[in-house]
Description:
alpha+beta; Immunoglobulin-like; globular; 11 helices; six-stranded antiparallel sheet; single chain; TIM Barrel; 30% strand
Amino acid sequence: xxxxxxxxxxxxxxxxxxxxxxxxxxxQESETREVKTLDxxxxxxxSPPNKPDQGFDEEWYGNELKEWINMPVPSSYNDITVHAxxxxxxxWVWYQRDFFVPKRWQQDNIGVYLRFGSIxxxxxxxxxxxxxxxxxxxxxxxxxxxxNLLNYGASNRVSVAxxxxxxxxxxxxxxxxxxxxxxxxxxxxxxxxxxxxxFNYAGIHRPVVLYTVPQNYIDDITxxxxxxxxxxxxxxxxxxxxxxxxxxxxxHCKVLLISGSKVLLENIGCSGELHITxxxxxxxxxxxxxxxxxxxxxxxxxxxxxxxxDIYSLHVGIRKLDWKNGGLKLNHKAVYLRxxxxxxxxxIRGKGLDFPLIVRxxxxxxxxxxNSFRTSHYPYAEEILEMxxxxxxMVIDESPAVNLDVFDExxxxxxxxxMEELVQRDKNKAxxxxxxxxxxxxxxxxxxxxxxxxxxxxxxxxxxxxxHFTPVVKCELVNYTRSLDDSRPIxxxxxxxxxxxxxxxxxxxxxxxxxxAWYSDTGLLDLIPRQVMSLITEWHDHFNKSIYISEYxxxxxxxxxxxxxxxxxxxxxxxxxTRHFKAFDILRKEDYFIxxxxxxxxxxxxxxDYTRVIGNHKGMFTRERQPKESAYALRARFELLADEERxxxxxx
Length: 652
């Protein structure tokens, strides 16, 4: 589809410039594909603050960087050096490295893609001085084809310009302030501020790889599953492409469903259904003795003469979600979420992908007895979700739209694009049980209603001619996300009052953040049960939707104690949790109250602020992943809830 084209998805209209242009299957090696990592130590340079465009003006992308320092990839650049000007830098920075491409790749007549797991925030990528691609927004992958830009059997150079500036039209938002008081600031001084409560880490955060595809290759695979009685159903659709976009209609697909080393089913066709009798379903931890069960789906692209052109495999968990009649059910069984909000955050590497940290976190999640987490406040790495899928941990998959305050059509188009990329990336993960559109947006604003709005059920969905939209905005956020995937409920997280929130009516399930005895009525622990009960009851009575507590908690400095308990101590944090548990135990008798998620899993970095002592300390664990007293208190509670689930579902 060209840039001027229009793609109909369901009953929403995607403008050509916003439509998904590339499927971005996770890179994997197979009989037909190779993957070459470009992770390692790169060259790195800041642009001079008074000459932010110097790198473009002098074409740094076409020459070897000068005055560079070493920078690990993946990582955030902020905490690597000992220099505050690097940590706090806002604007264009440059990455560069050389790499070798084998001559064989050219001889094999294959396509080559350069893929980035994520860069925060804006990225412009060059190979051998030629523009490859641009991407706007962190936390999600992007790629560009480099087949015709490479020197085969020789050295090549990749250069990446990265900018972490946040504005009212980025997601998340920030403010660019041009100061004009020369008594306070130097002439031309610019401030970039943001309101969200975590550090705006920047850089190449996730793996960088070159990967190959054959001339005729599998471009995308979409999976949806269902459960009817003891039969599991896998609905699949495979799209294929040709390097150069010359698709051969004669090519077809063969699909194998494999359990262990045994082929269970085989099907011919690039779309179809697989029916598995007595299927082993995907279950969350504690709801089944074998949680996280997945089958292997192996897809072959086959030529007319029977040759295998491309092979790609993915793991598929069979499960069914139901939220239409109140509560949240998985495989027809009610789900109660117990877990955390988290962050991708750790010492030195910031938000850079860290495999030891990922495995450590999942060990702690298992130790504490949790069954879920929310990817607050942005999509986490693909490797994190893959492990959740494998272990049976449920995930509320959240976009980077935190603290939105300005709602307009430009931002909406950007937000829709983010949801496209998020759904496209994670649509096949059984662990993803909800799409979260945003966290703590200022939804008391009148503009928030039209921004999120769900089309009324009596709207004629047969054609867009009956939709009274502006020329730019073709459907609002909830409806648009539903058109991308209608197999999961849509949620968002709010900290507004139920009587002033203009967006909550449009989502399926509502997450509520409330910090009783911390940000309100500080220290008054006895008020917590009353306030939490009233809060949840009011939200449900007003909207008649399922509700979960998405954040509650208190900061605690590790090792700080008082008797009696006082704010900022470990003792106070535990007491605050215990009072919440009393309210939760009453509320969870109601079908509409579906979960409790504490804030936060571990302490994390924030911007410098007089209300924060080197970060946010609401974690159950320290930033180094060691337990506070609150971790033991949470473990005791979650173990009780887990035991209830084991007994309840022992026959599954």
